[in-house]
Amino acid sequence: MACFISAGHHLRDSGALGNGTQENLETMEFRDLVVPILREKGLKVITDEDNETLPQYLNRIQTGEGSVVLEFHFDAYNHIASGSTALYGVDADRNDKAFADELVAGCSAIMGIPNRGAISETESHRGRLGLMREMGIVCLLELCFIDNDNDMIKYNSKKLLLANFVANIVEKYENLIK
Q: Taking the mean position of all CA atoms in its chain, how far away is CA 31?
């Protein structure tokens, strides 16, 4: 099987804005840090393309029960909110929840920002997320708040460490379902 790693926003969809940058650029960069580490570990990785919308990506990929599916995002709210959050589907099993818990706990610890928890997609402002309909172990990871100066300073100083951490967690869960 393969793991599926996506940036969550494409070149025509900036996503959240903050600190002089755009969510799409940050998520594409982070994806591009994680993917080579996964490939060095011998994992087959399928990613979104920078010009591909979420529906196009979801129509193209073929996830299965033996897949890890992870999408990166940055949150934005009021320039004050801080922390990492992980979201799992309404139909999540214990592996989905454990994957989300480990990712959010590790990211918040590495950056020294609040752990906002692993939550169901129903607790998100959208209520339902297209990515969560995919098969396998699925998570949407909000790394930090792009409009919070402190979050972004910590993210930028730790992004290589974060990429290695995320790759290790993906590998762990990919190995669980092989």
A: 8
